[in-house]
Amino acid sequence: MRGLQQLPSPLYGGDYSYQMGCIRSILASGNPLASCSCVGAQPGYLPFYGTLVALVVRLTGLDVVRVMLGMSAFNHAAAVLAVWFVISRRFGRSAGLAMAALWAVLYVPPVIKYTEFTAQVLVPFYFDALIGFVESPRPRRALYVGLTLAVLGYAHSVAFVGGVAIAVLCSLAALVIRDRAEGWPAAFAARGRGLAIVALAAAPALGYWWRPIFVLHGRTSVHYAEWNGGVLMRTFDDRLSYAAHTLGWMVSFEDPARAVLNVLFFAGLFAFVLARDPRRHGAAMLVAAVTFAWMFHYFVTMPLLGTHFVPEYVRSMLWAFAILLVAAIPVAFLFDRLRSPRARFAAEALVVLAAFATLGVRANGLAADDAMVNARRPLAPHYAALQAWVLAHTKPDDVVLSSNELSFAWSALTGRKTLVTRRAQNDAFLDMDV
Questions:
Q1: Among residues 290, 307, 166, which one has the least CA distance to residue 239?
Q2: Measured between alpha carbons, how far is residue 44 from residues 98, 198, 229 in Å?
Q3: In terms of pTM, does the model score above 0.90?
Q4: What value does the mean pLDDT take over residues 225-234?
Q5: Confidence class of residue 427 from pLDDT cuts 50, 70 and 90?
Q6: Smallest Cα–Cα separation from 324: which of 76, 104, 72?
Q7: What average pLDDT does this structure show over 55-74?
Q8: Element (H or E) spanning 418, and its range?
Q9: Are 113 and 16 in contact (CB under 8 A)?
């Protein structure tokens, strides 16, 4: 990130640029729940990450772009620590170190957008909470799940909706697979109390979700799922084709780091099937299995509801971590075979050194990317002049009438509102095609 003077993102249509506009809007209006581009709309990018950045900007007095770029390094470090913490709790310190190292190598690009921040920093804690809840629905564990869902409710819609669905499905599966030995009445009562606590703890998310659920009844704009999902999936053949694409990603070996993860995943499946005590990692495997199944939710939701919940984001945000819950099993097994502390330490050191070497190579490759090269140039003078004039002479809710693409750049540079703008990167319930 050294030497960058602007975001590695197009000013017209770039995701990072839209995120910058959201942060500027929060700073100007003081309202994280307001859209950064349209009056009366909800934020197109959910506000948790943008609010954090805005707070740092306010506290430090630094420029928005400088804080976004600087926080990317912090976000990467926080993500690696989150993976290490969660995997270490479930599979041991050495496995946690190895999975954190692999995670660092897999996810090198900047973390300067709400999607990547949610997936890499917040989602690991959701799965940590859910595994504990599956093991036992005690009140404290239920509270942990509910609080993580409350945060996800302001962080990303796919993570929140998917998180709620996966938590409910995991509870039902745990009731049948794990809890029935206690007797159905006791099992139902325990799970029911646990889910009630989860719901109460997650209720603060209604600060954002009340209107989408109870006022708009979940009816997004006509083409919203199409814009964000990339495919229509209206027919059964469409769904089968997309499912084949998803499964193909899991047997891809073009990228070395992804190949390592995929090999570990299949080794983990094999090891779990042959395990003498499958309950040792049973809760983690159940959570991973339900998350995997949720990637294909469109086989149910398209016929019943006529929509889907962006399965590509389910894969990249939720399954991206859940796959580690399977891949960590053979890693933990191999480290457990190293009885000598010296041998274990040597293996850990080798993993860390390999990760640093690979990370350096991948970071150098990223630095040569066209977007990164362009970001080393200063903002064009006419854009800088426009930004300075608008911030000095307009109010946060002033509205400009322009074309879709020019409106996008206006909001990105200033955080001010527009009458029309691009249909993507906006409130899911605001139809810009009208």
A1: 307
A2: 36, 26, 16
A3: yes
A4: 69
A5: confident
A6: 104
A7: 95
A8: strand 417-418
A9: yes
